[in-house]
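Service request form, structural biology core

Requester: graduate student, group of Dr. S.
Request type: structure prediction, single chain
Budget code: on file
Notes: please return the result as structure tokens.

Sequence provided:
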Amino acid sequence: MNIVTSPEQMQATALALRRAGQPIGLVPTMGFLHAGHLSLVKLARQAVPPSASPTGKSTVVLSIFVNPIQFGPNEDFNQYPRNFDRDCRLCEQEGVDIIFHPSVESMCLQDPAVFVEETALSKGLCGCLRPGHFRGVLTVVAKFFNLIQPQVAVFGEKDAQQVRLIQQMVRDLNFPIRIIFGPIVREPDGLAMSSRNTYLSTAERRDALCLVQSLQLARSLYRQGERDAGKIISAMTQKIRDIPSAAIDYIEVVDDATLQPVQTLNGAVLIALAVRIGKTRLIDNLMLPDDHLCQIPD
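Core staff response, request fulfilled:
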């Protein structure tokens, strides 16, 4: 396994692999890896199997970069958990070929004038409450695409709005890349895995189950025939408000393609929520009709 820290070296390596006909799969992360990230590595390897290459080889690149331009001024950039040595051990065990671990200085110029900004899908949900967040995400992901030259990039469905924005960017800017969604990976009790879960105290970790429990309630109401989005949101809201440490940022039912709010659940919809447990902001989501990507237990 190679560790590359220079953007120029990463691009030169990627271009050489492409010239040799060796396919590249990318898994972008902010590090502090968990089983959810490693499941994306498996998907990347499946998507670029060695047998697909004339050289009999393929390359999976996992990037580790805590991106400062996607954090707001009062968010947790400095506190975001980091453990590069542990991440390296997990990547080696999982068969990652290259870790791309650039510095902030090499990726974020002091006087940038060009950014990637999406103007439709980013208006609601997290985009509404975190101004500039998705501009920061898309700008750095576009840079990764240019530096790493992947044919395939794999993202987790827990960040549902993000993956739809990246799909839109790939379509609109003609990146020759296939985007794959990886299912949400959950703890045995249903909590969606997140690097930020480490912020939670023992009591907060228990309280955090209100996110998945509210989604289970929404799915149960849907299966019983409820199609009124307002009633589903109201039931979820009450479920979460029963938890004293929980504060709701949003609960929304949106069209899965446009991310526009819907009043009636017809066709594919996404139920998304962001909730603060103490000081920790967590997100989760559910696609309906039932979809394997959410992996919510019954």
